[in-house]
């Protein structure tokens, strides 16, 4: 199963938009999603501060700011 991590902050409108777009795919694709508020982790806040939202697969960043829908669908599509 593909494991996605969304690094976000609660006060971020772009973050809420990306989360909604990802969740809309849940009914058609199988993946696990972990949502991490960077403001609760100083190391992540320093790393991703102005880049959020950041969508990562394992430790690889897939996209920042806006969902790269094509890249995500290519990743989630059955082989």
From TrEMBL:
User: What range does the record give for the signal peptide?
Assistant: none
Q: Which Pfam families match?
A: Glrx-like
Q: Which SUPFAM superfamilies match?
A: Thioredoxin-like
PANTHER family linked: GLUTAREDOXIN-LIKE PROTEIN C5ORF63 HOMOLOG (PTHR33558:SF1)
Full protein name: Glutaredoxin
